[in-house]
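[recover] target loaded
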């Protein structure tokens, strides 16, 4: 039988609430990425000259943002489920792990740099 320490139980409760908040923030970020992807697609279609197909870079950027949002949400859900399993275990042990937020930020930075370079090449040459 495991002794229940009130401080440990309070810490578990705080960690549970923190995991809930983290999942909700990733949900918000994922929906934002998907919305921006759809928005880019719609704006480029609206300003494209009549009869001219949408540029491939804009369509590719839109699909990349939408895919990144969906993958981000899937990874956040997986991380949440893993954390809940650890919290339900009789003994909770901290273990360092990779940061989903840092990974998402790096991918967004890479997409931004590629987009700026591509637009620069497209507009000035």
């Amino acid at each position: 039988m495991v002794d229940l320490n009130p401080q440990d139980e309070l810490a578990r409760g705080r960690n549970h609430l923190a995991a809930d908040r983290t999942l909700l923030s990733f949900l918000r970020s994922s929906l934002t990425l998907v919305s921006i992807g759809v928005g880019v697609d719609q704006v480029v279609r609206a300003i494209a000259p009549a009869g001219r197909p949408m540029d491939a870079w804009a369509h590719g950027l839109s699909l990349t943002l939408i895919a990144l949002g969906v993958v981000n949400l899937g990874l956040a859900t997986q991380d949440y489920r893993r954390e809940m399993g650890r919290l339900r275990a009789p003994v909770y042990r901290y273990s360092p792990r990779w940061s989903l937020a840092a990974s998402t930020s790096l991918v967004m930075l890479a997409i931004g740099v590629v987009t700026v370079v591509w637009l620069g090449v497209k507009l000035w040459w």
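[recover] notes: Helices lie at 6-47, 56-88, 100-124.
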